[in-house]
Amino acid sequence: KKRIGIMTSGGDAPGMNGAVRAVVRTTIAMGCESYGIYEGYEGLVQGGDMIKQMFWEDVRGWLSEGGTLIGTARCMSFMQRPGRLQAAKNMITRGIDALIICGGDGSLTGADKFRDEWPSLVAELVERKELTAEQVEPFKHLNIVGLVGSIDNDMSSTDATIGCYSSLQRICQAVDFIDATAFSHQRAFVIEVMGRHCGWLALMAGVSTGADFVFLPEKPPAENWEEDMCMIVKKHRELGKRKTIVIVAEGAHDLELQKISPTKVKDLLSKKLGLDTRITTLGHVQRGGTACAYDRMLSTLQGVEAVKAVLDAKPDTPSPIIAIIENKIVRKPLLEAVKLTNEVADAIAAKDFARAMSLRDAEFAE
Ligand code: ADP
What we know:
The chain is an alpha/beta fold.
């Protein structure tokens, strides 16, 4: 019986449990055995009871659970070859030669590296007499499939990552709560949201809540942004608006060049416009909590597709990620998706915002 491992890795995201549930049950329905790997790559390196066979009823009710119930971790030892060698040994001794990983770009890059190195890891295990040639014979290839789990929606090649709509929903709810109190006191609020170097959460939160102004990592504001922002906020107030909401993406805040910080925005609003202004950093409430309906659906459909991709894989086909493009669940090359994702982050780090924007535009135009 084929044995397929499932793991969640990197930052947790709502919907990861739905993905694990779908993978476990589809694996069993296809006549294979399912193994849960606990605490991300840490479980693969440590082995033992961190790798557990999963049965149908083990994942009952998981669609409505937030976070990831099989745990996640940042694992330093998997970054080094000796850690990956141990991971390969643990997999072979448990008879697992296929892995489905739900994580961000880091986790998926690590997975592809592992797959690439696999034949040499296996050879080394035989050389060191840790395993026999007979033992490794059925494990010539490692089969990897990626599911993109991240609240940031920062992966190229897919329209949505598992978790991003739950996070957006949470941000909208939080802004609605703030709206009520802001309206009452006629206050202004500067709200910092997550997203790392991706402005999707901030932009879509701005669109969905009717914010007055938004700061994004991919698009630095014009030279005269201070006057711009004050002018727009003032205009809205003159039109009778009793509250002001400015959304700052954490990635825009981090950029030294943009010289934007929630404190600076607050000072402008209070000193130039005389508004009673407060700062709210939403923080980890954006990550926790139950998955919204969309993420439950996405994780389930993609989890099913991930198992199908494992069973379809040929030794020489490149590892796929499961994406959603224009509402269709599709497979895309993992390496290409990671490369495109890194290109945007690199362009922002190099302060080449025109390139960052054109890469994002190209994604939408695809
Ligand atoms: P995310 O998957 O959310 O982007 P990280 O970048 O922290 O999160 O990656 C999660 C884990 O994946 C790391 O702790 C490490 O174990 C593994 N990993 C990430 N990048 C690599 C890499 N280049 N080689 C091997 N393992 C990696």
